[in-house]
Amino acid sequence: MIMLFIRARLEHVAELSLPKGYTYTITVKDSTGDDERKGVEVTSTHEEELPASRGSANFALRWHRDSKMPAHLNVQEIQKEAKTKGKDILRAAYTAEDEGKFIGIVGFECRGLEVTDWHPQDGFTVKSSSGAVFEDVDLSEKEWMDYDEKLGESIGIYDLEWKLQAVKL
Prior knowledge:
G13420 protein; metal-binding; zinc; CXXC_Zn-binding_euk
C-alpha cells in the first residue's frame, strides 16, 4: 500500500479534508521499468473490470501492448483513524492538532505500477475554527487564503507538503 501523507501550516483552520470519491491526479511509474504517466486521474468511484480476472480496479493500464495483465490500482479511502505498523497516523482529515506532522489521508493499493507523485487540485473542504465551511478549495498552488466573517479573521493553509510512502497496515 502506498499512502499519501500531507503536512501544512494552518491559520484559524480546524480541519482540511477531501470528499469521498475525490479524483486524485497522480503520476504513476511502471514497477518493472522506466515508463511513466503523468496527470493520471483516479477515484474510488470508478470501476474497471480486469481482463482474464474476476476482479476490478479503480484504474488499469497496459504498459506494453503484449502485456497479458494490465497494471492496476485501487484507491483506499480512510474510513476511521488508524495507525500503521510504523505508527504513522491515518485519518480522513488533517486537523489543527496535526500541524507540523505528516498525516496519511488516502492509500493506493498498486499492482504493476507505483504512485510517484501527487498533484493537488481543487475540491478540498476547509472548516475554520469558527465552524464556517469553505467548499471546493484549490490547493494547486500549495496555499490558500480567505476571510472568515464569523471569526472576523483571515484563514489560510500554507506550505502544503506531501510524501508518498509504502506502509504496512
